[in-house]
Amino acid sequence: WVGDSLLARPRFEPLTLLAAVAARTRRCLLGTAVLLPALRHPLVLAHAVATVDRVAEGRLVLGVGIAPDSRAVRREFENAGVPFAQRVGRLVESLAICRQLWTDAGERGLTFQGRYWSLDEARLLPTPHRAGGPPIWMGGEVAAATERAGRLAEGWMPNSVTPEAWAEGWARVLATARAERGTTARPTPALYTTLNVGRDARTAEAELRRFVEGYYAAPYEAIARVQGFHAGDAASCLERLQGFARAGARHVVLRFGGGDQAEQLERTTREILPRLRA
Hints:
The protein is α/β, with parallel strands linked by helices. It has a domain at 1-134: TIM Barrel, CATH 3.20.20.30. Helices cover 47% and strands 15% of the residues. The protein contains ten helices and nine strands. Strands 1, 2, 5, 6, 7, 8 and 9 form a seven-stranded parallel beta sheet that branches. A two-stranded antiparallel ribbon has the order 3-4.
């Protein structure tokens, strides 16, 4: 899973990076967590996503969001020539265009006149590997975000601080999905969270704090109020994840915050995942 920033964070362009990973893998799911459609023309975005999904043979999940409100993100939008206040409307309109381009399979041109973009007889080929395009997941826990995910997305992937907050948001997502799309609608209940799986709690907590404050250039406590972080040994991290699993989360995207990434991955696969899946 890869993130998306033009300027706010030092990252590779996410779809280019996923295409490279897709070419060297066969089984693992690939996703964006999260991509910002508002920063891209939807025709260009639809083409890039279709290409990656073809290379990945249908293993792509398109996680999308509107971006948090911070000085760095606002500067990013300004430099891209996109009004920050339009990011929600642009997200919704962009996804509508992408889905129509993917669904029409190049058989007829898409003529579209929206608030932000217009297309005239646009035919997109190749279309994605999966008919209709990859599943779209959205994040966010506020009421507007959960209702938007329920209306528009195939999955919900918030960065929840607590299992209780996750459960409240999921209830809104599911209720909206079933009201808007029928009682059989069942988006994927996912979670994005940051762990430091250390040898001991004290070291793990110190590493996580250094990572968060260095990455976000803000006090740890301020970021931890709005994002889910946890540091401790494997048993402590397992207990943390089990809380979300009991709340209903069925897909977890883990980011390791600081420390030795390879060591934490090994510890997670050896000591956490078998018990979490049991």
